[in-house]
Specification:
six-stranded antiparallel sheet
Length: 894
C-alpha cells in the first residue's frame, strides 16, 4: 500500500493546510490487505477472480476509508451538495498519480470504476447508479477519481437505496484498472435470464468496447448455450465504441466495416471459453454469475463478475412443471387455512385416494412405489388450499385403463392439460386388460354391495361419534388427547371406503343420466337432468335451513321472544335465554340446544379445524336466527313447493317425450332412481364428514387448552398454527425445535399477511421449487372472458335484480332479496340462501353443495362462472337464467 498526500484540513472551515500522508491504494497482488479494508463488492469479486487464475486486467483499489478520512465527520452529516463541493476541493497530489501509474508500466489508458460497499450483490447490482470512466489518461486520473467519489452522493443513488430499503452508506471504493483495447466485448450470464433456464448460458457481444452494449445504444449478437449446442441470434452491428484517438482519451462511436456487419462478434471457440469461465465462476461463488468480458488479441479478459440479481424472482421455466387449481376445493376450504388443518387434510386425502386407487384396480405394490404422488395431492399456496393437478394426472395414469386408451380416460375424468408420464406408470396392454376385467368385476360387486356398505359405515360412524361426543375432554391430558385422536383416525377416518365408492358411482350415474336425457331428446332444456334431481326430501343439507327457519318462526310468533331478538345482540340473547325460567324462553333454548346437537358443526368453514363452530359458540347460530327475525323470514314466507314443482314438470316432460318408447322410458327411470339415491347419499355422507371433522376440532381445541395451561403456547388457539405432526412430536420427544412459541409467531405473521393479500389465481403453473420465484397471481391458465357471463345452470328460474357480492358470509346477516354473488360456498353459507332471490357462484359444478341445496330450496342458481368477481360488483343490476346459465349485465353500479 502506498501513500497519497492531500491537504490537512481544519475542521471548522474545511480549508487547506499542511499536507499529511494518508493510506491510499491497495494493489491487486495484496488480497490480505484488501480483506482488512472495505473495498466494495466489485473489487472484492476481482480479487476472487484473480485467485481463481482467471485473466483479469491489472488493477488497484482505493478503499472508501480514504474518503471517509478526508471528509470531516460534521460534514458527513450534511447535504450531498455540500459533500460533493468539498470533494471538488480535494487536491490529489501528482506524487500519488505517479506512484499509481508506476504500477502499470505498459498501460497508456485506464478504466476508473466504482466499487460500493453493497454494489454487485445478489439482490442489488446498483447498475448505472455510480459512475465509471473509460480510456482515461494518467493526466485525467485525479479528476475522474473525484468524479467516482462524488457519484456516491447523487440523488439517484439516494433514491435507489431508499426505494430498495437499503441503509445510506458513506463513501465508495474506487478501482483503477488497466484499459483493454477491446476488439469485441460483452456480458454473459450463467443462466438464461429471460426464462430462468438454469441449464443454459446466454452471451451478448458487440464489436469494440462493451459500453455500447451496456448503454443499449448498439445492437448485439446473442448466443445461447445449452448442453454444448450454440444457438446464435446475430444482429446487424453497424457501429462500435472505440478510443477517441483524436482527443487522446475517452470514447467515440465509429462505423463497422461493411463486410463485418452481419458476422458474429465472437468465434465458436471464444463462446465455449466464456462458457467455461461461467462454469468456473459458478463453482467458485456458489451462484450463477453475470460477467463482463473483453476480447483483445484473441485473448478473453474478465472485467468483472457479480451474482445474477433477482434470481429469487426468476423461476426456472425448464424446471419441474406443476399446475395448481382450487376451483372445487375452495368450497371446502375457503380463504386462508391454518397449518393444523392442512396437515390433517393432506394425510386424509392421501389415505382416501390410496384406497380409491386400490378399488380401481391399481396394485398395492404400485401404490406403495408411488407414495409421493398420493402424498402431494394438495398444496398450500399463500395459505390457501389447492389441488396439485400434476399428481392427480399421475394418479389417473396409474389406473389400468390409462395404458389402453389414455385420451378416453383423460376426457372421462375432465383432464384439460396433459403431463409427462414416466414409463414406470404404464402397464403392458395385456396386463392392463387383465386388470380392467378384474376391476370391472370388483366394481360391479362393490356397486351391488354399496347400500349395505353405506348402512354399515353409518352405524360405525354414529357409534363412534356418539362415543366421542360423550367424552369429557377437559379431563384429559395432552397425551390422552393425542391417543384419542389416533384411535379416532384408526376407527373412522381410515374406514372411509363407503363415501369414496358412493362419490365415484354418483359421478358415473349422474353422467349417465345427463347423457341419456340428451340422447333421448326429452326436452329443449339442457339442464333437464338437474330438474329431475330437484326436490329430494332425503337430503340432510336442507334440514338446517328448514329447522332454523322453524325456530325463527317460533320467535316471530311470540311477542316477548321477538322483542328480545330485535332489541338485544346475540350474546345478550343467549345469556338471557340460558338464565330465564320463563316457559317460552326455556322451550326455545331447548330447541336451539337440539339444533346445535344435531347440526352444531354445520357452519361456515366447517371443514377447517380452526373454525369456531356453533357447538363451541352457540351465539353464532343465535346471530343467524336474529337476522331471520329482523328480515321477516318465517316458514310462511319461504314455504311453497318450488322444488317439487320443478321436479314434477321435468317428470311430466319425460313422460310425454317417451310415452311411446317404453324401453327408453324404463332405462331412463332406472338411471334416474340410481342417480337420485347416489346424489342424496353423497350429500348426506358429506355431512357425516363434517361431524367427524367436528370431533377432530374438539380434540385439538382441547389440546390447545392443555398447551396453554402449561405455558407451552401463548394462547389456546395458537395450537392451530402447528401441524399435527409437530404437536405429536413435541409430546413424544421427536420435535426438531423446542421454540414453538417463536415458530407460532412466525406462522401467525405469515397467516395475517396472506389474509391481507389478494387470493392467488384460480389456476396457475409453477416451475422448479414451488415457493421460489413463481408467480401465484398469473392469469395465463385462466379462460378468457368474452361477452356476457355464462356458467352452468343448476336450478331454473329467471331473476332480475341487484347484485350483492359476498366474500365472507359473516359480512352480511341478510341479503334482502338481492342476488347472492360469491366465489365459492360451503354448507355453512346456507343460512344466507333464504334471504337471496338467486345464487351465482364463480366456482363449483352440478354436484357441488351450492348447486344441490339451491335445487332443494328452488332458488335459481348458476355455478362455474369464469370471471364472475372480476366483472360484477355490488349494486350492479343483472338478469340471470338458472336454466341456461346465462347472465346479462343490465346496469353498472355508480
Amino acid at each position: 500500500m502506498d501513500h497519497l498526500y492531500v491537504p490537512e484540513l481544519r475542521r471548522d472551515t474545511y480549508a487547506a493546510a499542511t499536507p499529511i500522508p494518508l493510506i491510499r491504494f491497495i494493489r491487486d497482488a495484496e488480497p490480505d490487505l484488501a480483506e482488512a479494508h472495505t473495498v466494495g463488492g466489485k473489487a472484492r469479486n476481482l480479487y476472487r477472480l484473480k485467485e481463481l487464475g482467471l485473466p483479469v486486467p491489472k488493477w488497484v483499489v482505493i478503499p472508501p476509508e480514504e474518503l471517509s478520512a478526508l471528509v470531516p465527520p460534521t460534514l458527513q452529516e450534511e447535504s450531498y451538495e455540500a459533500i460533493s463541493a468539498f470533494i471538488d476541493s480535494i487536491a490529489i497530489a501528482d506524487a500519488f498519480v505517479e506512484e499509481l501509474v508506476a504500477y502499470f508500466p505498459d498501460t497508456a489508458f485506464f478504466a476508473v470504476r466504482s466499487s460500493a460497499i453493497d454494489e454487485d450483490g445478489s439482490d442489488f447490482s446498483f447498475a448505472g447508479q455510480f459512475e465509471s470512466y473509460l480510456y482515461i489518461t494518467k493526466e485525467e486520473l485525479a479528476e475522474n477519481i473525484r468524479k467516482v467519489w462524488k457519484s456516491a452522493f447523487s440523488e439517484r443513488v439516494y433514491a435507489y437505496r431508499k426505494n430498495n430499503h437499503l441503509s445510506q452508506k458513506f463513501g465508495i471504493a474506487v478501482i483503477v484498472q488497466e484499459m483493454i483495447p477491446a476488439e469485441a466485448a460483452g456480458v454473459a450470464f450463467g443462466i438464461n435470464p429471460i426464462n430462468g433456464d438454469r441449464r443454459a448460458k446466454v452471451i451478448s457481444a458487440v464489436y469494440g468496447l462493451g459500453e455500447g452494449l451496456v448503454s443499449g445504444e448498439l445492437n448485439a449478437d446473442t448466443f445461447i448455450l445449452k448442453e454444448g449446442a450454440i444457438q446464435s441470434q446475430l444482429a446487424e452491428k453497424t457501429h462500435r465504441v472505440v478510443i477517441d484517438s483524436q482527443s487522446k482519451g475517452g470514447t467515440r462511436t465509429e462505423a463497422v466495416e461493411a463486410g463485418a456487419v452481419n458476422l458474429p462478434a465472437l468465434t465458436e471457440a471464444q463462446i465455449h471459453e466464456i462458457a467455461a469461465i461461467l462454469d468456473t465462476c459458478r463453482t467458485a461463488f456458489g451462484k450463477p454469475q453475470d460477467i463482463e468480458f473483453a476480447v483483445a488479441g484473441n485473448k478473453i479478459y474478465l472485467l468483472q463478475a457479480r451474482p445474477i440479481t433477482n434470481l429469487h424472482k426468476l423461476a426456472d421455466q425448464q424446471g419441474a412443471y406443476t399446475l395448481w387449481d382450487n376451483s372445487n376445493i375452495i368450497e371446502s376450504y375457503p380463504g386462508v387455512t391454518t397449518p393444523l388443518t392442512f396437515s390433517f387434510i393432506s394425510k386424509s386425502y392421501e389415505g382416501a385416494y390410496k384406497l380409491f386407487s386400490e378399488f380401481m384396480g391399481v396394485d398395492p405394490k404400485v401404490i406403495k412405489q408411488h407414495e409421493r404422488v398420493f402424498a402431494n395431492t394438495l398444496g398450500l399456496l399463500n395459505g390457501r388450499v389447492y389441488y396439485n393437478l400434476k399428481t392427480w394426472y399421475h394418479m389417473l395414469a396409474l389406473l389400468p385403463g390409462y395404458s389402453i386408451n389414455a385420451r378416453f380416460m383423460e376426457k372421462m375424468m375432465g383432464v384439460k392439460e396433459r403431463f409427462d408420464i414416466p414409463e414406470s406408470y404404464r402397464l403392458s396392454k395385456g396386463a392392463a386388460w387383465w386388470r380392467m376385467v378384474k376391476m370391472g368385476v370388483n366394481m360391479y360387486r362393490r356397486f351391488l354391495a354399496l347400500p349395505r356398505k353405506r348402512r354399515d359405515f353409518m352405524q360405525l360412524l354414529h357409534e363412534t361419534i356418539s362415543h366421542y361426543k360423550n367424552i369429557d375432554y377437559a379431563d384429559k391430558d395432552a397425551h390422552e388427547l393425542m391417543q384419542l385422536y389416533l384411535d379416532f383416525e384408526r376407527k373412522l377416518l381410515n374406514e372411509w371406503k363407503a363415501p369414496l365408492l358412493n362419490d365415484f358411482f354418483a359421478m358415473i350415474w349422474f353422467g349417465i343420466l345427463q347423457k341419456q336425457c340428451a340422447q333421448f331428446g326429452i326436452s329443449q332444456n339442457p339442464n333437464i337432468h338437474n330438474d329431475l334431481l330437484c326436490g329430494s326430501s332425503d337430503i340432510i343439507s336442507t334440514q338446517p335451513i328448514h329447522r332454523s327457519i322453524a325456530l325463527a318462526t317460533t320467535v316471530t310468533s311470540d311477542a316477548e321472544l321477538k322483542r328480545l331478538f330485535l332489541k338485544q345482540d346475540e350474546k345478550s340473547i343467549w345469556r338471557i335465554l340460558s338464565g330465564s325460567a320463563a316457559p317460552n324462553f326455556v322451550a326455545l333454548k331447548q330447541e336451539i340446544d337440539r339444533y346445535i346437537d344435531d347440526f352444531g358443526e354445520r357452519c361456515i368453514g366447517e371443514l377447517k379445524l380452526e373454525t369456531i363452530s356453533y357447538t363451541q359458540d352457540p351465539t353464532q347460530f343465535v346471530r343467524v336466527l336474529k337476522s331471520y327475525v329482523e328480515t321477516g323470514i318465517t316458514a310462511a314466507s319461504t314455504s311453497g313447493k318450488v322444488e317439487e314443482e320443478i321436479r314434477s314438470k321435468a317428470e311430466q316432460e319425460l313422460h310425454e317425450a317417451l310415452k311411446n318408447q317404453p324401453l327408453k322410458k324404463w332405462r331412463l327411470k332406472r338411471t334416474l332412481k340410481k342417480a337420485r339415491e347416489l346424489v342424496s347419499s353423497r350429500e348426506n355422507l358429506r355431512y357425516e364428514r363434517t361431524r367427524a371433522f367436528g370431533i377432530v376440532r374438539e380434540i385439538f381445541a382441547n389440546m390447545g387448552k392443555r398447551f396453554y395451561a402449561e405455558s407451552i403456547i401463548e394462547h389456546p388457539r395458537d395450537i392451530f398454527f402447528l401441524t399435527k405432526e409437530e404437536i405429536f412430536s413435541y409430546l413424544e420427544g421427536a420435535s426438531v425445535t423446542r421454540s414453538i412459541k417463536k415458530l407460532i409467531a412466525l406462522r401467525k405473521e405469515e397467516f395475517e399477511e396472506h389474509v391481507k393479500q389478494e387470493p392467488p389465481s384460480e389456476r396457475f403453473a409453477t416451475h422448479g421449487p414451488v415457493y421460489h420465484a413463481n408467480d401465484f397471481f398469473s392469469t395465463g391458465k385462466l379462460e378468457t372472458i368474452e361477452g356476457d357471463l355464462k356458467g352452468i345452470g343448476c336450478c331454473p328460474g329467471r331473476v332480475r335484480g341487484k347484485v350483492r357480492v359476498i366474500r365472507n358470509p359473516q359480512e352480511a346477516t341478510s341479503l334482502n332479496g338481492d342476488i347472492l354473488v360469491t366465489s365459492s360456498t360451503d354448507p355453512g353459507w346456507v343460512t344466507l340462501f333464504p334471504s337471496a332471490s338467486a345464487i351465482i357462484v364463480e366456482r363449483g359444478s352440478l354436484l357441488s353443495h351450492s348447486a344441490i341445496v339451491s335445487r332443494e330450496m328452488g332458488k335459481p342458481c348458476i355455478v362455474s362462472v369464469t370471471g364472475l368477481l372480476k366483472t360484477l360488483r355490488t349494486g350492479d343490476e343483472i338478469e340471470m337464467d338458472g336454466s341456461t346459465g346465462e347472465i346479462r349485465l343490465l346496469n353498472k353500479a355508480l
